[in-house]
Each structure stands twice: as C-alpha cells, then as structure tokens.
C-alpha cells in the first residue's frame, strides 16, 4: 500500500502580537524596507512607533564580521 505524501513550507517574516511586532528579515536592506512598510501601515491606523521601546536584534552567521545594522524608524 502506498500513500501520497504532500509537503509544504512557509516562511514567516512578520509576527504580529497585541502590542508588539517581530520582523524576521535576513538583510539590512530588507529590514529597512519592512520597517518603512510597517511604519506606513501604523501611520494609516493612527498608531505611533515608540523608538524608545524599539529594539533591533541582529544575529550574524558564525565567522562573519559583526556590523550593527542601522535601521531608521520614521527618519529617526
């Protein structure tokens, strides 16, 4: 007896919570693009991103020079 196998994958880049959001992005350029889109979406709904509470976490691959990403939120 043979059964048919179906495998699918999905990559999740944005995790939204009640008052938090996690953007799971690989490159600094894509992170800035995602942040710009997220900020625009927040502005559309009258929401403000608190830069005092905003944290960028960067985890480079092993044995790669570590450079802190420079991500702007609303130009700041």
From TrEMBL:
Protein name, per record: Reverse transcriptase domain-containing protein
Organism annotation: Schistocephalus solidus
Lineage: Eukaryota, Metazoa, Spiralia, Lophotrochozoa, Platyhelminthes
